[in-house]
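Lecture 7, part B: from sequences to assemblies.

Below are the input chains for today's worked example.
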Amino acid sequence: MYRYDEFDHALVSERIAEFTDQVRRRVDGRLTEDQFKPLRLMNGVYLQLHAYMLRVAVPYGTMNSAQLKKLGHIARVYDKGYGHFTTRTNIQYNWPALSDLPAILTELAEVEMHAIQTSGNCIRNVTTDVFAGATDEEIEDPRPWCEIIRQWSTIHPEFSFLPRKFKIAVIASETDRAAIRTHDVGLQIVRGENGETAFRVFVGGGQGRLPHIAQEIAPAVPGRELLAYLTAILRAYNLLGRRDNIHKARIKILVAALGIDAFREEVERQFETLRHEDLRIPDDELARIQAYFAPPPFETLPKHSGPFDRALLADPDFARWSRNNVRRHRAPGYASAIISLKPVGGVPGDMTADQMDVVAKLARRFSFDEVRAAYEQNLVLPHVKLDDLPEVWRTLHAHGLATANADLVTDVIACPGLDYCSLANARSIPVAQALSKRLADLDFQEKLGPIRVNMSGCINACGHHHVGHIGVLGVDRKGEEFYQITVGGSPDEQAALGEIVGKSLPAEDVAPAIERALNRYLAIRHEGERFIDTVRRTGAEPFREAIYEAA
Amino acid sequence: MRLLDPLPETDEPDGAIPGDTPLAEVEAAAVGANRLTIRFGAFRDGRGFSLASILRERGYGGELIAAGDLLPDQARHLKRSGFDAVRLNAGADPAEWRAMLAVIDTVYQPASDVAVPVWHRRAAVETLEQKAARLDARYRDADPETVLAAAHREFPGRIAQLSSFGAEAAVSLHLLAQVDPATPVLFLDTGQHFLQTLSYRDKLTARLGLTNVKIVLPDAAERAGEDPKNDMWRSDPDACCDLRKVRPLGRAAAAYDALITGRKRYQATTRERLAVFEVLDGQVRVNPLANLDADEVEARFDDHDLPAHPLADQATLRSVAGPAPARCGRARMPARAAGPAPTRWSAAFT
Ligand code: SF4
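Predicted structure of the full complex, as structure tokens:
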């Protein structure tokens, strides 16, 4: 993975020094909260319901063991012993003291991490396929390009005060595991002319109050032109995006208002006059960055592993976990293991300091020192030998990290909601917990197969409810928490927005209603048909019926 | 970046362009202007950063002033977007602004200022010789366009072309205009050029759209001291060359890391391969035309309909490496090819 050099270190230290000074001025009263706000936002510090919140970037979700260990250390020393992984593959701390922030940032810098641009109207942390570098489906590892975008977008002089935040995701396979069509800009690596790296570019996706699926703006932008093309898109957006209404300020509204063709013309007009040479990443620099992401030295192994096969037979719990949480790997004899942060009755995405230590150790011993954060709020050990999986599982199991529900119905994405978030209408965590308790039976979950349930505490949609196969949205009805249910949403290469099935439900009815919808699916599905395919075939109607059946 | 005092309170319009003005109108206002003020309606509203960046990229060379609701913490963004000055608001603390302006940032991305992006600084860690050798190895067989584009990429803002506007200069300058017409072109005015060369220079500059031709003159004091009677060319041509060419060009060229020449392999006086990137006296020489042969040079004249030098109808002139200063004894130049300093400059010129 990427390692800082003197320049990367210098940039982060400069920002910390500056922010340390600003915090000092805030603490001693020289800065008012109003004046401090834009400055702290540039450094990932929010003011939440109860306290300041610090959001730390995990660039494109890739960490080494020292970094994860440090994240655990910060949770232990400066917070209440846990952290929360977000759908942007960042980690949030909910209880840091303002005066501790400079120390926290300094500690983060020791392991090449920071909180720059995790908030504010700028280009946010780039996300990617959690199995990048491990899957056999990708054309090339997308992470060097993520790193290039990270560097290019960091403290960008022109794009730090955009109409609204800006999110970019990059994938390198047809299968979309990063939900690129829900992003302001989604990039899919394709083979261009002469087999060169090129980017299929989608623009104008977004969730929130007015959700949109991104549309294709260019089929194959050559890699060397990528930054020029992104600059052109951002310029068009910065100049033309709305600033009069925060709910209409994202690029999706601009693209929808102009139409994709007119927007493309705007972008092309900007593209023509750019200084392309300047924005072309030097070949050496690309090679330098790519070298950091060279595949680890995989051993040459047979496809099958005796210890693994024996453990499957010996231990049904291990077998179930392997069935549900282990994914195919490009190297024979290896696999990627999903560490679910969705235990029954737990808070989706939360992880204790001790658990972080445990996973950091596993990563070092069994996964070439690599661990990933998935946007579904889970972690992944990307490169584990099949031989080692039983031991990895035993350790995870001993620390409450072996919930065998990856991509199943209780692998719920949920935002922090009213328990923490100052914008929330309703709590999302207790509703997710109630659902996971009600559907805890793993036999039932396996029978249902892959189903994505997503929950947001308000229309800002941090919990991606629009693109959940089943979505749950907290709404405020006369001061009470209610929940609106959607079905048929999808975040992947067949991205779609869910359809609202009807009027919203009180909290206690949500889990039973979803259970009825799931039973309806079991009753009407064709042989081997996934939930989302059934919804696509039948439409929302059967599910609407089930959800509103007299409870 | 300069800090300007607040304007006195008046109801008069101050001529500033609001940050929400459409780009086309801003561009129209910039035509022929030597000073523009862009007013930020709110510090959160970053349109002004894009307006400034675009004006700079499209060649606006006048003064750019930022005004309106701005935070000192935005000083770096303003500077990097191409602003020259900030108009402070009444009540703003100039000390805070000065403190922010004094900060030297590490920057990743290129912008409209002189800060060198990290990508280029990383490359600069190698010695000049290593860099030239690396580039030469990579581009030794590349076409002129590729070589020149690479040179601009590798030495952004630190590269200039040497030209005498001689017989074959049009080819090399046309190439330059394709890659970046704003690249400085150093033209040595020895005071002894044929008039035709001077008018050809102006014609070619206009025709190719070159925007940054710099006239390099001998130092007047040196000339008065060393060659008061203006007859040194006769008595001591080498000293004359040193006075009128080597020293002035050396001074002018010192501002650059790399100099583009129009040299071609077929003109070389030795059998050695002419490198496309090489180091001479601590500077990189880029020879994008190195691989062209005489026919290809001829073809480029035809393909791009390039005007010929008025004195170039004799085939001889075109094949001579040196410029055509009126009384410098042009016949002598190739013969001097082995001499140290003068060769450097004359051979670099076409
Ligand atoms: S969706 Fe709403 S409630 Fe949930 S985290 Fe986002 S803003 Fe807060």
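Note for the exam: The longest helix of chain A spans residues 6-27. Keep this in mind when comparing with the next example.
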